[in-house]
Design a protein that fits this description.
By secondary structure, this protein is mainly beta. It has one domain. It has 3 helices and 13 strands; from the N terminus they run E-E-H-H-E-E-E-E-E-E-E-E-E-E-E-H. It has an 8-stranded antiparallel β-barrel with strand order 3-4-5-7-8-10-12-13. A hairpin with a 2-residue loop joins strand 5 and strand 6. Helix 1 crosses helix 2. The radius of gyration is 24 Å and the shape is globular. It starts with 10 loop residues before the first strand and ends with a helix.
Length: 270
């Protein structure tokens, strides 16, 4: 049985302390470009039925109607493995010095607000931790009654930040699809910034890149029961809107429809 060492669960970083050489030290850079979510292209057969049933006006309304309010958002966390006391894969593959990428997929309209703290948790629909030639996801099925969230903190109190947990109140982590000695491993990440970093709990307002500028503290570990055998050093986090699919073009569909009518007319003449 490998030796498991109990490491501190919280690290404060201040000026002069070592940080990864890849960090540029820039403060949070907001990204004003917001992706637009539009309808997927409608199959020609469905479009023809719409036109026959309700006319061309209905087709145009379907193509150029108002955009949906929800946006799909990608969160990418980058860091380096600081230490690892686990030997068995997949967690054991994350050896010290390995660069890691954690990708989360969120829906900007799927969230739960805390009733106690100024925090809001966005449902994680996809979670992938990659590094050392391995990929680790969330426990599947996820524990009954629990929901994995990416949580925003706004003035909580006097600090802003983010954490990943199956609670919108406390950074207690999420369960991984990887067996440990004391049950499944859990992933625990939290980061705190100065209090004017976020202006709200709206995920779309938080779009941008976060590094060491304004950083107050971070914690990034993989836990096995009461122990933290894997520690990671935070490098950067990017929150971006997923590009929307191409809009439906009525002109193209109208050409298809006219072609279909011409073929039917030619067949009738023949």
């Amino acid at each position: 049985m490998p030796e498991i060492v109990d490491f501190p669960l919280h690290r404060e970083f201040t000026a002069g302390m070592l940080r990864p050489p890849s960090v540029d030290g820039d403060a949070h850079t907001p990204n004003s470009a917001k992706g637009e979510r539009v309808m997927n292209a409608t199959r020609c057969g469905v479009a023809r039925r719409l036109v026959r049933g309700a006319g061309l006006a209905l087709l145009a309304a379907g193509a150029f109607g108002g955009q949906a309010s929800a946006e799909m958002v990608l969160v990418e966390l980058r860091g380096i493995v600081e230490f690892n006391q686990v030997n068995a894969p997949p967690v054991g593959n994350l050896t010290a010095g390995t660069e890691v990428l954690l990708s989360l997929m969120l829906d900007s309209e799927e969230f739960t607000d805390s009733t106690t703290y100024p925090t809001r948790g966005y449902l994680i629909s996809d979670f992938t931790l990659m590094g050392g030639g391995t990929s680790i996801g969330l426990a599947s099925p996820y524990p009954a009654g629990a929901t994995p969230y990416f949580v925003l903190r706004d003035n909580d109190p006097a600090v802003d930040g983010f954490f990943i947990a199956d609670s919108v109140d406390f950074p207690i982590g999420v369960e991984l699809d990887a067996p440990g000695i004391f049950g499944a491993f859990s992933h625990d990440f939290s980061v705190s910034y100065v209090g004017d970093t976020l202006g709200s709990l709206d995920l779309l307002d938080a779009v941008g890149t976060y590094g060491f500028g304004g950083l107050k503290s971070f914690n990034w570990v993989i836990d096995d029961g009461p122990f933290s055998p894997v520690g990671l050093v935070f490098d950067s986090m990017e929150i971006s809107v997923v590009p929307a699919p191409a809009p439906l073009v009525v002109g193209g569909l109208w050409g298809v429809l006219r072609g279909g009518r011409s073929r039917r007319r030619d067949s009738a003449v023949a």
